Amino acid sequence: MSPEPEAATHGVRSALEDERAHLQSQLHALDVTDDDSLSFDENFADSGQVAAEQGEAKSLANRLRDQLSDVQRALDKLDDGSYGKCEICSNPISEARLEAMPATRYCIDHAG
Ligand SMILES: [Zn+2]
Fold first, then answer.
1. Structure confidence at residue 47 (pLDDT)
2. Gap from CA of 14 to ligand 1 centroid (Å)
3. Rounded to the nearest whole angstrom, what is the distance from the C-alpha of residue 108 to the centroid of ligand 1?
4. Helix (H, G, I), strand (E, B), or coil: what is residue 32?
5. 92 in a domain, yes or no?
6. Is residue 60 classed as helix, strand or coil in its secondary structure?
């Protein structure tokens, strides 16, 4: 039997799970494959607009995947009990900061 999660952590977990579902559906909507095997039809080879749109979708997809991996990482940390600590200095990250950015890995001093 596992103990009841603390209310605060429970809220964070559902926020992260919502965020993960949201990111996954955005990625799905972009319909960008993971393996770089997008087939460029030769008929479109001289269509700069198509290439630009595909490039945009890909860079957006990359950003979404980065966010998704941060969210997944935060969920893993909730499981192993290391959630809410800065990865650089191990100090606790402030509650306000976690509330604003539940997937953050760094305290305010080590952000960005
Ligand atoms: Zn720090």
1. 72
2. 25
3. 7
4. coil
5. no
6. helix
* CA–centroid distance, residue 9 to ligand 1 (Å): 20
Q: What is the pLDDT of residues 52-110, one digit of tens each?
A: 888 889 999 999 999 999 999 999 999 999 999 999 999 999 999 998 999 999 999 99
Residue 28 placed within a domain: yes
Q: Is residue 1 part of a domain?
A: no
Residue 42, domain member (yes or no)? no
Ligand 1 centre to CA of 94 (Å) is: 11
Rounded Cα distance, 92 and 76, in Å = 17
Q: How far is the CA of 19 from the centre of ligand 1 (A)?
A: 24
Residue range(s) defining the domain that contains residue 13: 7-34+47-82
Contact 97, 60 (CB under 8 A): no
